[in-house]
Design brief:
Elements: E1 3-7, H1 11-23, E2 27-31, H2 34-43, E3 47-53, H3 61-71, E4 76-82, H4 87-94, E5 99-103, H5 107-129, E6 132-135, E7 138-141, E8 146-149, E9 152-154, H6 158-169, E10 174-176, H7 177-185, H8 194-207, E11 217-220, E12 224-227
Parallel strand pairs: 1-2, 1-3, 3-4, 4-5
Antiparallel strand pairs: 6-7, 7-8, 8-9, 10-12, 11-12
Helix pairs in contact: 1-5, 2-3, 6-7, 6-8
The structure holds calcium ion.
Length: 229
């Protein structure tokens, strides 16, 4: 579940944020006031990350942040700050925010921050509570680090396992080769991107019904790969 609450009173900014998060594979819930945002968070424990604008009618974003922290310490919070309000960053972090994005921001910058926060909050929680990811015909066991297809074990290398896990945690999301490299090999790895393609080719041979016409690991031309359609 990748649910993000977007609190922003300016409708054009809110829809810009929402469109870009949806494009990145997130489910979004919108609020125009702090009071509304707090009510939505209270009734939906599935919300894992909240983006909070600061200048709002009614209570401001800092107060919303404080109140969210008072009821749930695990939710990830990113403040949307204006460039002219340098102090916002400090104040935001003091009230319990995890990160901030300065307006105007690019879609890539925004989704990168949300992705990073999900990895730290939502992602961790998932691996503790559930050690199986089931997406028929596949079943991934994250405790034993094994993959089954239609109940049959598929023998994977650790790298292939890492790629499958990344895919199954991000179904339907286009992942760039750089993202795959960072997630599986680590950010400190400065190898060639080609290594991603080589491993994907090998993985397809192991898991696709017909490796020349893949249906699970799909190519996103000029970008990377996507799990499913
Ligand atoms: Ca505002």
């Amino acid at each position: 579940m990748r649910k993000v609450l977007v609190l922003e009173d300016e409708e054009n900014i809110r829809s810009f944020v929402v469109i870009n998060l949806k494009r990145a594979g997130y489910e979004t819930i919108e609020a125009g006031t702090g009071e509304e945002a707090l009510a939505l968070i209270k009734e939906d424990p599935g919300i894992k990350v909240a983006l909070l604008d600061i200048m709002l009618p009614g209570i401001d974003g800092f107060e919303v942040c404080r109140r969210i922290r008072a009821m749930d310490s695990k939710i990830g919070i990113i403040m949307l700050t204006a460039r002219t309000q340098e102090m916002d960053k400090v104040t935001g972090l003091m009230t319990g925010a995890d990160d901030y994005v300065t307006k105007p921001f690019s879609p890539a910058e925004l989704t990168a921050r949300v992705d990073a926060l999900f990895r730290r909050t939502g992602g961790e929680e998932e691996s503790v509570s559930a050690d199986e990811i089931s997406q028929p015909p596949f079943l991934l066991n994250t405790r034993n680090r094994t993959l089954e297809k239609n109940g049959q074990r598929v023998k994977l290398t650790q790298v292939e396992y890492g790629i499958v896990k990344l895919f199954m945690e991000n179904p339907g999301k286009a992942l760039s080769r750089e993202e795959i490299l960072d997630a599986v090999w680590g950010k400190d790895y400065f190898g060639e991107l080609k290594i991603v393609d080589v491993n994907i080719r090998r993985l397809r041979i192991k898991i696709e019904d017909n490796p020349t016409k893949p249906t699970y690991v799909n190519t996103v031309w000029g970008y990377g790969y996507k799990w499913g359609s």
